Amino acid sequence: MTQQEGKAPVSRNRDNKCSGPFKLSDQPPHYLSAVEYNDIPEMVRVLNLNKEIYNGTASFQYPYLESHALTRLENIYIRDNQSGYTNCWAMRASPKGPLIGWIHTYFLPEDSGTRVHPESGRELKVGVIGYWVSPEHTGKGHGARAARFVVQEYLFKERGCDIVRAEAYTHNVPSRKVLEAVGMECEVEEWTTFIPKLQKDMVICCYAIHRDEATKSVVTDKTKDP
């Protein structure tokens, strides 16, 4: 376990709900379970295999350091411990096997009723997903399988989300195929945004899936949705 300057890392509450392991597939074997500190070495190795994941995301650094992973997990654990739910999982080929990918969720902030249900008027709950798969394990459906499970079983059924959103660079065809395989539809085909790590504008597309037909009129609005 990595540790900074004698500071004890934030502990993950083992009682958090939905930590897994969850079995998603026999062939190929595919499980989801909470990301642990002992996943950091493998996470660092995978994210430094090449710049594929760096190029496909807005946030990952390259080279990726243990300090980056530690900070991310600590922030995740703080948030999860406050909510009582696990919101970030490792994809694995066995229940306790090494990390082969990652999927996380978060919820858009409350914003005083600017996103409301068209029929009831109640405030909507909107979730967001993000994911990556090791370059050594692509082409096996891991991304789509994990995203489908997290959207349907976790965000819709367990957390009561009305809408789940995701973003991808417009040119990132594999990521877009994952979202479409989950049943998401593209709501914004081109949105230009500044990516700090690249120090340039990039074009992203915005996808969403709705729990019921009534909310389909509530499309992504980049003036409100981060």
From TrEMBL:
InterPro entries: Acyl_CoA_acyltransferase (IPR016181), GNAT_dom (IPR000182), N-acetyltransferase (IPR051531). Residues 35-201 form the N-acetyltransferase domain. Residues 1-25 are annotated as: Disordered. Keywords: Acyltransferase, Transferase. GO terms for cellular component: cytoplasm. The keyword ATP-binding does not apply. One of its GO terms (molecular function) is protein-N-terminal-alanine acetyltransferase activity. Belongs to the acetyltransferase family. RimJ subfamily. This is N-acetyltransferase domain-containing protein.
